[in-house]
Write a structure and sequence with these properties.
Blueprint (H helix, E strand, L loop, with lengths): L8 H9 L11 E10 L9 H19 L12 E6 L5 H15 E7 L6 H19 L3 E2 L6 E7 L19 H7 L2 E4 L17 E4 L13 E2 L10 E4 L4 E8 L3 E5 L2 E2 L10 H7 L9 E8 L7 H5 L1 H13 L6 E5 L2 H12 L6
Parallel strand pairs: 1-2, 1-13, 1-14, 2-3, 3-5, 5-6, 12-13
Antiparallel strand pairs: 4-5, 7-8, 7-9, 10-11
Helix pairs in contact: 2-3, 4-5
């Protein structure tokens, strides 16, 4: 199939047939919402001046977007910039760090790559994350190990060499490399309509790497209450579903893949579908994890992500889905989303 729906459609139909599990009686549904931005200011071969212009748009636009909006804790919307290793620029990173210091988000790691050995990839990631921490005050150190830790989004969705032709990766043990270099979770998925999409959908799970084959994260063990981390890497997926409210030629449903863009703008209409299929930690079905994604740097997406469409979506979330009756909203960075998963695994409520 051109859209590669055969990879995941069977799993989706099984989920569709299962009734949605509501929270325990009398308790609101907690909505943990994060935005993972594949933020590429040098997109399409842009020069440094253009890249800095794109950053300036976010320096102005993100505070204006978030002004006056808050979750149930009084916290504004959060934005996680996954910045490409291969496009390192000190001034760009300093400017993004400035946005984060205003309490509006964090910077994590994005990477487009191919042709390296596992050792070369590990060295690249270690050097880059150390630079983000030491030079720019980004990322954080694990208090137990002392090493810098980071969240990850793979360029071209090709995590663990998952494209059929082996392009845009080439490293079959990438999950282990990520874990070894301090990756606390991957936020790449969903990849649909790319063939890099996994059979596992709408899930938060742990994958075990098989160094002899690609796409080891096709399946894994779901995160669940009472069981701690396992395997090689935690994967936090966004929603993947069929949207019958948007049809091609008025007939076939279009794919809902949690992307926010000019072509698929953020609208309140999408929220119920996100909540129907949002990943849960098993045993804690009263908490829904809504991980959205976008490409925030290209000019074509600025209006959708920083203008009235995004503002309307956030306002709807902060009002209709933030009443402490039926719903309780939590704006989160991707780091905080991973920590909320671990809190539930320990039997605790996320903050």
């Amino acid at each position: 199939m051109r859209r590669h729906t055969g990879i995941w459609l069977g799993e989706y139909m099984g989920q569709l047939a299962r009734p949605w599990a509501p929270p325990p009686s009398g308790q609101p549904l907690t909505i943990c919402l994060a935005v993972a931005d594949h933020y590429e200011p040098f997109w399409a071969g842009a020069g440094r001046a253009k890249a800095l212009e794109r950053v300036a748009v976010w320096e102005r636009g993100l505070p204006a977007l978030c002004e006056g909006l808050a979750d149930g804790r009084g916290r504004p919307p959060q934005h996680t910039f996954f910045y490409p290793l291969e496009d390192y620029d000190p001034e760009v990173l300093d400017r993004l760090a400035g946005i984060c210091r205003r309490g509006l988000g964090e910077v994590e790691v994005h990477l487009h790559h191919q042709g390296e050995t596992s050792a070369e990839l590990a060295a690249k990631l270690t050097e880059f994350t150390q630079t983000l921490h030491d030079r720019h005050g980004l990322l954080r150190r694990d208090p137990a190990s002392g090493r810098v830790v980071y969240g990850f989004v793979h360029g071209n969705w090709a995590l663990d060499n998952s494209l059929p032709d082996g392009s845009w990766c080439g490293v079959n043990d990438e999950l282990r490399v990520l874990a070894m270099t301090g990756c606390y979770a991957d936020f790449t998925l969903p990849a649909a309509p790319s063939p890099a999409q996994t059979k596992t959908i709408n899930s938060i799970y742990y994958a075990v790497d098989d160094p002899a084959r690609p796409k080891s994260h096709d399946r894994g063990r779901p995160a669940r209450v009472g069981e701690g981390p396992s395997g090689d890497l935690l994967l936090v997926q966004g929603v993947l579903a069929l949207d019958w409210g948007r049809r091609k030629w008025g007939l076939a449903p279009r794919i809902e893949n949690s992307d926010l863009s000019a072509n698929l703008p953020p609208t309140p209409r999408r929220i119920p579908l996100w909540l129907r299929f949002a990943p849960r930690v098993q045993g804690a079905e009263g908490v829904a994890f809504v991980k959205l994604s976008c490409h925030g740097a290209p000019e074509k997406n600025h209006q959708a992500l920083l203008g009235s469409p995004a503002r309307e979506l956030l306002r709807e979330l902060a009002t209709a889905y933030n009443d402490d009756g039926r719903y309780r909203l939590r704006f989160m960075t991707c780091w905080e989303m991973a920590q909320a998963v671990h809190a539930l695994e320990r039997g605790e409520n996320p903050a």
